[in-house]
Amino acid sequence: MGCLESDGRALLDFKTGLEDPENRLFSWKGTNCCQWKGIRCENNTGAVISVDLHNPHPYGSSSRYGFWNLSGEIRPSLMKLESLTYLDLSFNTFRGIPVPEFFASLKHLRYLNLSNAGFSGLVPPIGNLSSLQYLDFDSSSLVVKDLEWLKGLVSLKHLVMDSVDLSMVAISDWFVTLNRLPYLTDLHLSSCWLYGPIPALPYVNLTSLAVLDLSQNQLESKIPDWLVNITSLVAVNMGSNRFYGKIPLGFAALPNLQLLDLGMNRNLTASCSQLFGGRWEKIRVVEISGDRLHGKLPASIGNLTFLTVLDLSYNDIQGGIPSSIGKLCNLEVFSLASNNLTGTLPQFPQGAENCLSRSPLKILALSFNQLVGNLPEWLGQFENLVELSLSNNMLSGPIPTSLGSLQNLGFLGLGSNRLNGTLPSSIGQLSKLYHLDVSSNHLSGMVTETHFLKLGWLGQLYLSSNSFLLNVSSNWVPPFQVWRLMMGSCHLGPPFPARLKSQKDIEYLDFSNASISGSIPFWFWEIASGVYVLNVSFNQLEGQLPRSLNTTLSASLDFSNNLFQGPIPLPTVNIEILDLSNNKLSGRIPENISGSLPCVLFLSLSGNRIEGEIPASIGNMQCLKVIDLSSNNFEGSIPQSIGNCSYLEAIDLSNNNLSGKIPSSLGDRLSLLKTLHLSDNKLVGEIPSSFRNLSSLETLDLGNNRLTGRLPRWIGESFENLRALILRSNAFCGELPSVLSNLSSLQVLDLAENQFNDSIPASFGNFEAMTRVQLKNKYLLYGMYRNVYYKENLVVNMKGQTLTYTRTLSLVISLDLSCNNLSGDIPEEITKLLGLVALNLSRNHISGHIPVNISKLRQLSSLDLSRNRLSGPIPDGLSLLSFLGLLNLSNNDLSGAVPYSGHMTTFGASSFSGNPGLCGAPLDVRCAGDNDPETGRSFEEKNNSGEFYGLIDKYFYLSVGLGFAVGLLVPFLVMSVRKSWSNAYFGLVDKVVETMSFS
Asked: Which of 277, 336, 353, 492 could be a cystine partner for 514, CB 3.0 to 4.6 Å?
């Protein structure tokens, strides 16, 4: 039948409000609207029942032709289509107009799809649509203010509101309302700004629910128990939230489950570098608080025989991988990356014999765990595998040759493990491979042309941090054009690798530490002009760098640790990272450096021969996060303008010839500054009071200068994050402020070689970070960007020598107050600093006893109390300090026997010399009671028996008549052995001398 005349007029009126630039509605003419494009009528009556004007080629579609977007206004003539049951306007561009409220009058509507149609504003109340079964409002421009209208959609089966702002309605109201929709089968509320806990429901009415998508919200609670009681569930996606607690085992009992995605549920903030080839290169995670989603994979997971997707990545899943996963014959995605999985990969998965030959598995992602053991051979039997990611584990053994049979493999990530052996040549058969990463392992051997035979699609190649030797012919042309080539620590030289000349698309290139020497050929600079990241550091490259580095905008250039000479090169465009450290560059910093590098983030010129003054124009480089000019020949004052670089996290100007006062501007605007090194210069004056504004500071190193004045009290009040305070070798004076103990994060305090006086404050035993043993190492990196960063380093005096710490710096706990004018006792409270690795109080005027409880400092590696006025015995407990490598108690007034047992026997006499009252091994002075080395009997034993002294008495008077020599010798011998006689004699001498000295 032809369409109803009234419906045809209504549609033509509706068309007049639309803008149709591609004339999609060209067929809307004539009288039979049932034949118009997008219109469907009821067969018997001719009434229009369906208006489907969705864009068939939405944005991003590979088959899109032109811009088939309808726009304009939605005229209310649609209300005249009284039989309308289906309305689809999705993927058009209605330019932010509101959703028409008259849609609520289309009372027969069963299907309404306005997804990504360009509507915005509040979702109107459409609760009158009691027949509606399908509702799709997917749009980031729509907002829901209340839920009253949703209660009226009693027939609703499919609800999609992805990206709609639902934050105005409490999550508890959402679930209470949704629980009243008994026919609901599909619920999609992804990226809706939902937050808070999912409530407990007194009863569950969602007995038909099959698909639940709550991903990418801010839901924060345990996964509710009622959820796993909905046996009709087929797909559950609750990833990228903040769920915590144990994963309910009930998921493994859902009989029809096909998709389970609980990935990325950590109560944290994660900052990642850029996404390359389907994976995040670097992930830095900062924990906030609370529990995380955790648990173990039960063996019963093998019962989910319909499961196609299992994603539990970025959680805290522990334990091993059960062998029952071999029974998941329909599994396509298995991702548990970034968890705490332990154990080995199953060597013989249960049921694998029935699945491996026909397994649809495409993605196996287990990177960033703690898996050990060898790679099993069955990995090479997943013929459909597209991605295999096992990087950042502790896997060992060889790479299976069978991986070369995975003809569909595009992504192979085995980096950062402990794999050994060679790279199988069968890898060269993977014709679809675009990403190959075996970096940071213990692999060795030759890499030849066979390894790349069929890798025509290869775009990312990571071979760095192994011991490969590239052995290809001089005329070999690689079959690929890579855009990421990482071959650091591979042996490529000594000649400069000529095969790079064929690579025209390189954007990221690393051949650092590759045994390359000589100069860089001219043709290389043409290739380098297109790179974003270039790292040629740690080679023996020489010659001059081009005066003008022609490279890509926002590039990262690392030429450090080579033999380059000549002036500092400057890029022709602005770059973000320039590292020229540890070469032989000379001359001065160009005055126009700020014009060439206005937005550079990382600038390192350390370890060269650059001289002259630091130009004031450097303050115009206001994007700087790191500036390292250390170990050069700079002179003059520190420019005030550096204080304008408000994004600075690290400043290192140490080991130069800088003079004058520290500019106060450094403390005015650098609120992000975390590490400041000005040591080994000729700076004078006091610490600027403006430094109290550096609230983010973690390291302050001003050692080996000529600074004066008292130590300000505000240092102990302003730096809650300070880890290291180095002020040694200056001329600071006065008392040590007791408020320094407020520095709760302080691990290294070095105030040596100054003029501090008075006693050591008892509060120094309250340094909170020093009271804890540091067992977890944290590499301190600042200004990190594109895998380039400033590595924190600190020179610490320990074991009688200066040691530079970088990687293990966070484990060092040191207190050095040596070479001052300190007096008084060693505070007993010092023994509460249980984490101390080094304690140096030498060369002061400290008196009193060594605290007996010093034996509690079990982590001590270096203890120096020499050149003081300490008295009393050496505590026996020192022998319990098994880590002690240096002990110096020399030049004090200690007395008694050296407790020479246990670990103390490893120290020689020099550790105890200069203490006249000390005796016993390892000193030459014997203590009373020591055994005679000839007879094995002590002198006191002989005295008690009367053997020795009876003989002396018998011949005592005979000695009087002997000669002058014998007359002197025998009394001396007698008194040296007969203790009572010698005491009486020397006591009389003391009285005579004392009387004479006061007369």
From this structure: 492
